[in-house]
Amino acid sequence: MYSLLKIAFKKIELGNFSKNSLNFTILYTEYTTLTGFKVLIMLSFNMKKIIFTDLDGTFLNHDDYSFSDSLDALTLISQEGIPLIFTTSKTKAEVELLQKEVGINEPFIVENGAAIFFPKGYKNFDLSFLDEKGNYFVYQLGLSYQQILNFYNKYKEEFGMFGFSDMSEEQIISYTSLEPNKANLSKSRDFTEPFILKDKSKLKNLKALALTYNIKITEGGRFYHLIGEFQDKGLAVKKAKKLFNQLYNDNIISLGLGDGPNDIQMLKNVEVPIIIKNHKDEYIKTGIKTVQKSTFKGSKGWNEMVLKNV
Question: Where do the structural domains in the chain lie, given as residue ranges?
Answer without folding.
Answer: 2-38, 48-141+235-309, 145-228
